[in-house]
């Protein structure tokens, strides 16, 4: 079964950059400990500090879906409600 790569891009409201960053950082340790998580890396854009990108690799789509039902993920969703401007998530399968 192929792994799933996720590129998730979030844009924080300009007045909430540090609050969003704090919530994103809280996700890292528990997510990396989840079964099925191979890679979970957070990046912040150098030119626009409101832009954050996660690069993730999961063993399967099922393990990714299980991640979205964890308490730490649900807590994050609640915490950033109303303080992010945009979010896009690309779920991809490596082809080469």
TrEMBL record:
Keywords (A to Z) from UniProt = Monooxygenase, Oxidoreductase
- Transmembrane residues, as ranges? none
ABM domain sequence ranges: 4-92
Highest taxon of source:
Bacteria
Query: What is an example of a GO molecular function annotated in this UniProt entry?
Result: monooxygenase activity
Q: Could you tell me which InterPro entries the record lists for this protein?
A: ABM_dom, AI-2_Isomerase_LsrG, Dimeric_a/b-barrel
Q: Which PANTHER family match?
A: ABM DOMAIN-CONTAINING PROTEIN, QUINOL MONOOXYGENASE YGIN-RELATED
* Protein name per Swiss-Prot or TrEMBL: Antibiotic biosynthesis monooxygenase
């Amino acid at each position: 079964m192929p792994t799933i790569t996720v590129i998730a891009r979030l844009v924080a409201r300009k007045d909430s950059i540090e609050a969003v960053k704090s919530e994103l950082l809280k996700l890292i340790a528990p997510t990396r400990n989840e079964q099925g998580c191979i890679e979970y890396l957070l990046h912040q854009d150098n030119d626009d500090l409101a832009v954050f990108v996660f690069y993730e690799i999961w063993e399967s789509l099922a393990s990714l879906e299980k991640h979205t039902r964890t308490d730490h993920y649900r807590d994050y969703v609640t915490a950033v409600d109303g303080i992010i401007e945009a979010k896009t998530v690309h779920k991809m399968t490596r082809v080469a």
